[in-house]
Structure formats: C-alpha cells, structure tokens
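note to self: the first set is below, dont mix up w the second
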Amino acid sequence: MTERIRIGVIGTSWYSGFLTSTLATCEDAEIAAICGRTRSRAEELAAKYPTAQVYTDYNEMIKNGRLDGVIVASPDDLHYPMVMAALKAGLHVLAEKPLGLTVAEAQEMYEMAVRAGVKHLIEFTVRWMPHSRYLHQLVQEGFIGRPTHYHFHHFGDRAFNNAYDWHWDAARSLGVLGDLGSHTIALALWLGGEIRSVSAHLATFSQRLNPEGQPLVGANESAQIILDFADGAHGTIQLNQRVHMGERARDYHAEVNGEAGRVEVDWWWGTPNRWGKVEIRGVRAGETAFQPLPIPDEILQGVDPSDIFGVFQKHLVGPRLFVDAILRDYQPEPGFDVGLKVQKVLNAALESHETGRRVTIDG
C-alpha cells in the first residue's frame, strides 16, 4: 500500500463532487483518479484535485490507476459491474446505494468482498447524520421502552421534471425505492433490527421518453410500505418524489413509538437556509407535552446542528470512514452485508406490489 491511500472515483454527478470534496479533507488520502463517461465532465471535476488522473473507462482506471480503493457513484444499473471489477482487482470499495438492482447482484457483491478480504462500505448518508444517530441512541437507551411502531416519510420534488433522468427509468433504477427508500430502510434496520415481511404499493405518475425519444417504462415515483419486524414491531414508510416542496428540497420525518414513550424527528433542507432545520422531541408515559431533545455535544462533536452535512467534513463517516478503515484495518459499518439486507427489502417491496401480497424475507 502506498504512503497515502490512493482512491479512484467513478462518477461525475453533483453527488460525486460532494464525495470528492469530503475525500479531500482526509490527510491520509489522495484522489488519484476520476472516471466519467464524458471526458470534459471528468476533467472539470479532476481539475480541483492536482493528483487526479482522468479516465473514461473504469476498467482502465482500475487496471492502471495504482489504486488502493474506489468509490462507485454511478447510476444504479452500473453498480454491479463496477463494484465487481474493483473487487476482483482486490480493491476496497465504497459504493453508492442501493448496492444493486437485484438480491442476486447484492449477494454476489457481498460474498466477493468477503472472499477478497477488502473493506466494503455503503453510502447510507441519512444513517450518519446527527439526528439519526441521536434517535438510535435514544432507542438503545430505552427512552421509549420496547418499540412497537416505526414511521418514516421522505419527500422530494425531483420527479416533477419530466425530462429523461435515469432515476425514473425502470431499466436502470429502482425509482424512489432505491433513491429515498434505501436510506429509510437502512435506518429502519438500524433502529429496529431484522425485517421479516413487507407489503407495498407503488405508483408512477409520469410518462417519460428515453434518450431516443421513445416511451420508457417508468420507475416508481411514490411508495407506501408496511414492515413487520422480527421482534413483532410494525413499521410504515411513505416515499414520494413528486411533492410540492416550497422552500424545502427534502422533507423527512421519523418517529419511534414504544411502550414507555415516543420520539419524533423532523428534518428539511433547501432554501433560503441551505441546510434547513432539524427538530427532535419526545414524550414519556405520564407526561402531558412533548419536550425538545437537543442533540448532545458528544454526537455533534463541534458540528453546528443547523449544518448537519458538516459531519461529512469533520466526522468519521462516508469517505472519511472508508479511508480510516483502510488505514487502520477494520471493517466499517454499514458494509455490504447491510446493503444486502436493504436490497432484500427493496426487492420484496417490488414483488409485493406486483403480486398484491405480503412478501416474507428470507433471513
């Protein structure tokens, strides 16, 4: 291994730019390569990082980039071939969510990562945010007692743009399930443990054309999901990317109800305050009013609670966690095993919608 961890990034979207800017805060890492289908976009992103070589073929980058690891931030249908190519080359991998399009793909990627003995990590952004970590802490500490019901909603307005976007192409994406649902299901698993069955109803409201101008099969833009947890608790998830948002870019709500109390989290971000607002409140059995629950300093660790994305520049999450795990030789969380569990729930939701039946998840 080189003196500094050499990372190659596959993808040139705005989110790839976010990941590379985060990676650039790691003193022990070097952005060694940027790979994009369009050379001009790859060159534009690479220009910010003097050490980055430009590639338009990820196989060439993996072969010749002298890399220690890669970040795969490509459209969903490309995760499997790109991740597998990196794993077969013995590279550590940080992959965007969802891990794949099918359970079979996710299973193969996880098993290959284990056989290769490399570090593997999934970019479940919401799980790392301070409000999610505090919610998890409150549940673990017994603030609500035995959990009985989880509820989440995650809304956006991305689907109002009827221009071609791979997110709404069923051949390339799992729709809002893969986009917002991956984050939400990963959080549900972290809070509530194993999910045993899923019931779902999905909807697509738009008719889009593919890049050749022909009608395409649209991916889901809205989802209603019922979860049955292994411990008997229930859960509900509402996802929609066709919601009028006003000054908000995203609107997120999570709550956990238990025998001894209830905790709620509301978070939105957009304009004019770019990072929006977070509110956490709780009520215990016998209390007559909700009380605000400020995020503790030990979770914030110097991050302004109104700048929740600050954790990605300062804490060991995302690319910073990936680099640290490689450097210090430990398996970070959430790994491809969690990605596989999320994939099972995603594909069970698709099957439930298609069959009109509840689908049991094979543990």
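second set (the one i keep forgetting abt)
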Amino acid sequence: MKNGIDVSRHQLTIDWTAVKNSGIEFAIIKAGGSDDGFYEDSTFQRNYAGAKGAGLAVGAYYIVGSKCISREDGIADAKRFLKIIEGKQFDYPVYIDLETTSTWDKVGATDACIGFCQTMEQAGYYCGIYASDVYGFADRLDISRLAAFDKWVAGYGSKPQYVKTYGVWQKSDAGRVSGITEKVDLDESYMDYPSIIKGKGLNGFKKPEPAQQAQPVKKKIEVILEINDHKYSGLLEEL
C-alpha cells in the first residue's frame, strides 16, 4: 500500500518537497474538466512540474460535467483531456472523474465513461474511473458494464462496500499534509502502477526493449586420435 493525495487549484501553492518528506508517495493532479465550460486547471502545469521534481509518482484526472451522458460526449472529453496532458508522463493512471451527472442518466453516463476510457486507451494511456462508492458507482453508473476499467473509489470513514475491486481508495477529503495549507484529499493505492505502466510503455513512457537472450556457451574439448599408428589432435566444438 502507498499513501497519496489528489490536488487541484483549491490547494493553492504547494510545497512539493515538504509533501514528499511527509511520507506521501504519489499525487493525482487535476488536469481540467467540462463541469464549468471546458478548461485546464489553473495549477495543473505547476503541480505536475512540482510533484515530478520532488520525486513523486504522478497521475491525472479530468472531471466531466452533467451533460457528459453519451458515448460521443465521453469521447469528446477524452480528446480534450489528451490535449491538456500531451507530452507528459504519468506513473499512475489517468482518470475520468464522474460525479455531476443525474441519476436519471445512468445508462448515458456509463456509455460516456466507456467511450472516454476506450479513447484514452487507444491513445496509449492506462485509464480508470473515479467516482464515489455509492453516490457514483451505485447511483450514477452501471458498474456491471465497467469491469474492464480500473477504479478509484471515494468513501470516507470506511473502505468501499459497493465497489468490490479497486486500485485506489480516496479515504478522506479533509486531510492535512505538510507543504499544503488547505485541506486535501487522502488516498491509498494497492497496485504497483509505476511498474505496470512503464512495463507496458503507457502514459507517455516508451516500452522497454526486450532483453536479448544470452547465447549458450558451446563447450570445446581437445582430442587426440590415433589411426593406423598416426596421431591427430584438434578441438571439437559442441553443436
């Protein structure tokens, strides 16, 4: 298990070295959203550079608005997300954050999540879905259709009960961490995302070159043969 945080402009200016020294190992950073027009979070670039510079593993998220209720909507938001994060590397997944759609739009919101995640995957990213345990995954999404995608689940006070399988748990929205003056969300991660992502060459990383298999060393022996009173010597090499 690793301890992390997720941040946005609401955390103001962050001292990332102090955050790292406090024991935080990863940060999931808000890149932008479509919940208030289409925008890039005003602190995204600074937070990305600061967290990376301090040696933290980094992920990103994009919050979608209440009108993201079709596959086409999800694809359009994914393309906006891709433009914001272009050229960067993420050790943790990149997430669609769904929390503002209506409970009446459950089918459409699920379609949007699938379209979003598939578009991100086709672009070479490890993509997941963020939502709250009941308010999001139970009330606003059809989780039975989302088994293929990683989940980051919010649930305060106790671990998620509705969502059975997840990689990150957002356990608090009122944490206190050195280097951050405001309250901050606290997270726990249960998967070795950096190894998975880098090993597959996702999220801006190049896939490692396969290790060349060492060639077996062939044995050589010196032999002496005697034929018709004549001696012959030489090396025999194993085939």
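remember for set 2: Residues 42 and 143 are 32 Å apart (CA to CA).
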